[in-house]
Structures are given as C-alpha cells and as structure tokens.
Amino acid sequence: MTEETYRNPILDADWSDPDVVRAGDDFYLTASSFGRTPGLPLLHSRDLVNWTLVGHALERLEPAEEFAGPRHDCGVWAPSLRYHDERFWIFWGDPDQGIFQVNAPQIRGPWTRPHLLKAGKGLIDPCPLWDEETGEAYLVHAWAKSRSGVKNRLTGHRMHPDGTELLDEGKVIVDADRIPGWFTLEGPKLYRHDGWFWIFAPAGGVETGWQGAFRSRGFFGPYEERIVLEQKDTDVNGPHQGGWVRTPSGEDWFLHFQQRGAYGRVVHLQPMRWGADDWPVLGDDGAPVAVHRRPALPPQPPAAPATDDDFPGGRYGRQWQWTANPGDGWATQHSGDGLRLTCVRSAEAHDLRKLPNVLTQRMPGKPCTVEVELRLDSDEPGARAGLAVLGDAFGWIGLQRGPDGTAHLVHRFAEGVADAERDAAHPRLATDGRARLRIEIGAGARCRFSADTGDGFRPSGPVFTATPWRWVGALLGLVALAPAGQGHAGAATFTRFRISAS
C-alpha cells in the first residue's frame, strides 16, 4: 500500500449497516447502534478513507422505559442519512415500534426528538428520497420476519416533503420471492439518477449475501434488478448493505459492510462506475477490492475513531456507549482524571449481559492489547469492578471486595447458554484495591486475560474466545456494581484506558 492507495476495511470495527452522505466537501456516515446509548453515531471524513467520530444524533432511546435495561439486538436498526433543505436527516427502523426520523441543521445538532413516522412491527431499514425535479418525497422500507411474518420485499410510500407523515397506505414495489435465487432482501437505499429511480439493496443474509441494484422509471415500479457486488473469489464474505456517494469532482464510491463474527460488521470502500449499459459496476467488476487508488480528494492526515481515554474531569469520550439508557449518577464528574463509576446495586450482578450500567466501546478488528488501571473505592462486601469482553458469552477481570474487607483479584466468564458467571481462575489474590488489567486479543478474537497487582502482569485463566450477539459484535466494557441492597455502595475509578496494536 502506498500514499496513493487505501486498504480495506477502512473502518475495522463494528460500524454496522453504514450509510453515507456528502454535504459540500464533507462526508458523513452513520450506523446501527441497536440498544446502546447514545445512539446513531456520526462520523466525519474529508477523503472517504480516514474517519473520526464527531457525535451522536440520539441521546436516549424511546420510549425510555422500554430501554431501561439492555436489549442488545433491538433499538436502532440500519439508519439512512440524508442532506436535504439545508438539514441533515436520519431515518431508522425499530423492529418493535416502527420507523423513526430525526433531523438537525448541523451534523453536531441540535437534533430533534425522534418522530414516529410509521408505527408497526417489523418495519425496518427505511430510506427517504426527495425528488428535486418534482418536489415529491418518497420512502422505502424492508420487513423483519421475526416481528411481522414478512420478509424479502420492499414497500414504498409517498411522503410529505417535511418528513412528518406518509401520504398513502404503501405498496410492495419489489417482491424478491419472484426473483429466482433471491432471499432476505433488505437494507434499501433510494436514489434518483439519470431519469431512473434506483434502489441499492442487499440480499442473501449478512454473512453470505450480495449487493443488488434495482431501477425503474417510476417509483412504484416495475423494477429491473442486477447483482452488482458479490464475494466471487475474494476472502470478503457477504459484501453488501451500504450507501453510494459522489465526490465534488464526480467520482462515485460505495461503502458497505462485511460480517466478521465477533468483530461485527466492518466497513469497506468500493470504487463505483457506470457501465456501458448504464448499470453501476462496484469494486473490481463486481468483486470487492482489498487495495485501491484513493478517491481524488485533497490528502488528509491518517485518522480513525478514538479508542484511548484518560477520562479528563471524569468525562468519557464519544466512543463509549451504555448498554441501555443511562441512570443518574452512574459516572461522576470531578476535578482530576479518571472515570469514576458508581458501584450500581443490582440483583443481576451475576450476569453482565443483563446490566444497563456497562460502559462499552467497539472491539477492534485487528489483534490488539487493551489495558486499564483500576482502583476499587468501595468497602461494600461483594462490590466489584473490572474490564470485560461482552457478547453472547462474556469474560471479565477485575477486583471484588470480600466479606472481610479485603479486595481480591477475580476473573469470571459465562458461556452463551449460562445464566450466571463462574470463576475462570484460582486463587483469588488479595490486593491493595488497585490493579492494572489487560486483555490481549489475538486472531479469531481469542482473548488472554492478565493482571498486575504490584509484581508485574500475570496471565489468568484459559483463553476466552469472544462471541457476538445475533446482530452486534463483541464489545469492550468497563463496569462497577454491587449486590442488591440499600444505600450507596461506593465507586470504582478507571484511569489510562489504552488500546495498542499487537
């Protein structure tokens, strides 16, 4: 790779179901955030290769009571990001509630509160289109069979130009049950180009699917279809579901995801051109590229979404998300550095997957070493805090206060089928209430835990292989908790969170 080329993936972590838009010389991307808050991440780039996280469009999930506890695979699914009428717009589907919309005059906000555009079960993956020629507006969405009993079809609506209501009952505009070999058609992105309505939509499932393109002279069809991106003889499985964007000079590019197990859905950038028959050609004649010439845009310094954090003033960076809507006082601001997490009391202290007060960030897609320093500022018996790898199965290492007041090093895990954690290592070393914690994440998301309680890092327990949830990649997490009971249970302080390449 040279300065003139880039290598995929351009975002090597779980930025699921990406969509992209250009406003002037700037490019913006959003992605699914499911049940984590804040939701709807907002990324910025000037060259489509280097991205930084600049904020979130959704402070809390609504209705708030539905997301007071973790719902890891629910919430915000497959958003669409658009720029229209000098505003940014995001539409997404909550499979249990319906289609929502927020908008803002600037990418950093202020964003409106979520507006429910279409209520119903199984309504997912919406995308709006404002036709600049006619002034009309449209919406297309897909279906989740798990909630509606329907899938593999796209429904279209006329929409009020202000994005507040749909103007008809909707019509199936693409029924992929009628297309031989097509299944699980979803994730549509709607465009107008060269006199055609275009729908870019994936099919075939997240791990094995392909990218389709559909075109019609009228929004409600009939549509022709073509497969425009598929694995072929590359090692990029299931390349699909993303967005098309055009640079100021007229170059076309397509961003999409690749499902990579515990690492989630990493983001690739494909060149795009229009063939002699006026159909889009993605990648290398329909196959994903690994290395390619960079977009013809002004050169930018290397950049990536932040991971490290010193937690100045007790504040955590934009890369962190709670596993549900946050409660008051979970993180306390103060005058120094370090994240001060309250040891939240819970009857579910035996299972991190059920806790809303786990502060998480995405696990990198390449081998790395994760470290953090911990001080357990609690005398409450059973109070504990640590560093976790969280998924359908989980493992964590940290400190726990014993009945006699001694702080012990603990390392615990739970399989996907288990309803409670158990010890991963013995004995429990007594400490002074401080420890440096480390997780070395190798190939295949295999995690080796270790800790330094004053005499250097020592490995703990067997190798633990991280696992995703159904739709969400594994997460790194910081947590402080205590058994159910009355009164304040103290706190834990985390400092110097670092992720370094291995």
UniProtKB/TrEMBL annotation:
CDD domains: GH43_FsAxh1-like (cd09001). Keywords: Carbohydrate metabolism, Glycosidase, Hydrolase, Polysaccharide degradation, Xylan degradation. One of its GO terms (biological process) is xylan catabolic process. Pfam families: GH43_C2 (PF17851), Glyco_hydro_43 (PF04616). SUPFAM superfamilies: Arabinanase/levansucrase/invertase, Concanavalin A-like lectins/glucanases. GO terms for molecular function: hydrolase activity, hydrolyzing O-glycosyl compounds. InterPro entries: ConA-like_dom_sf, GH43_C2, Glyco_hydro_43, Glyco_hydro_beta-prop_sf, Glycosyl_Hydrlase_43. Residues 309-499 form the Beta-xylosidase C-terminal Concanavalin A-like domain. Belongs to the glycosyl hydrolase 43 family. PANTHER family: BETA-XYLOSIDASE, BETA-XYLOSIDASE-RELATED. This is Xylanase.
